[in-house]
Amino acid sequence: MKRFGKRTTEKRNSILTLMLILSLLAGCAAGTAAAETAKGAFDRVIALSRSNAELWILAGGKLIATSDDAAGMDGLNEDAQFLGDMDHVSLEAIAALSPDLLILFSTEPAQKALGEAAEGIGIHVYYTNIDSFDDYDRVMKELTGFTGCSGAYERHVEQVREEIGGILRQVPEKAEKDSYLLLHVSATKSKAEKNDYFACEILNGLGLDNLAGDSSAFDVLSMEAIVAADPDYIFVVPRGNEKKAAESYEKLFSSQPAWEALSAVRDGRHFLLDKNLFGLKPNARWAEAYREAYDLLYGQP
């Protein structure tokens, strides 16, 4: 294994630190502990959640540990340890691995609490919150700034943005937008997603109008509210255990007589979406998600 001498290591760290500073000055969002206090390369990184692990790997990094849901993920280095459920990893388990960076969700209360505790013992924490492609762009710009892998940003962000633009240019112009509801269904809870959900950005960009976007009628999802709205399209995304989600969906919706009377169901504009593209954050597969939704709406060009 090639080893660096003291001077080489110091030079390498100085270069990486400069790259990080330049990326921040170029417009990367500041405010995270990692962005503000990083002194060089992050070599011992833990990312809790499959999505966060994938982001770091896409940015050109390796992980010393991650959560169990990342098992089997493409690109994950074989020596990465698994620390359990992403919302139930202990601070002790994190500290025992001496990480210099911990990547967490800012929107998950358990992870936010873990991050605050980790910062309290001197671990740099980087929080992610991706609800749009622009959010993904910002996070990847920052993470590739940490790794120094600018080619990864070009490959996984700039090229993907170009692909999305090509798809959007094919969307036919209409005098009036068709309406839709995007239903997230699990064994315990079902909801109509509003426009702050990333998949709604995709559907809105493809020329549809989200009936739940600015309506309080869907704050509590009910069969009555769906019938009253009678959307042109209905999209369903399973959450959690897919078998249990399907059972819940059938019980609450598809087995109801009123469901078959909905125009979206009657006219074949009712779709089950891929959980990996529309339930989990698509990351480098954003263009693929746009393409799949486009094909459902308008057919392959």
Short description:
The chain has 301 residues and is an alpha/beta fold. It has 14 helices and 10 strands. It folds into 2 domains: 11-165, Nitrogenase molybdenum iron protein domain (Rossmann fold), CATH 3.40.50.1980; 174-298, Rossmann fold.
Form type: globular
Strand order of the largest sheet: 3-2-1-4-5
Q: Averaging pLDDT over every residue, what do you get? A: 85
What is the helix/strand order?
HHEHEEHEHEHHEEHEHEHHHEHH
Q: What does the largest sheet look like? A: 5 strands, parallel
**The CATH class of the largest domain:** Alpha Beta
Question: Describe it for me?
Answer:
The chain is of the alpha/beta class. It has 2 domains: about 10-165, Nitrogenase molybdenum iron protein domain (Rossmann fold); about 175-300, Nitrogenase molybdenum iron protein domain (Rossmann fold, 3-Layer(aba) Sandwich), CATH 3.40.50. About 45% of the residues lie in helices and about 15% in strands. It contains 14 helices and 10 strands. The strands form 2 sheets. It has a 5-stranded parallel β-sheet. Helix 1 runs antiparallel to helix 6 (about 135-145) and helix 7 (about 150-170) packs parallel to helix 14 (about 285-300).
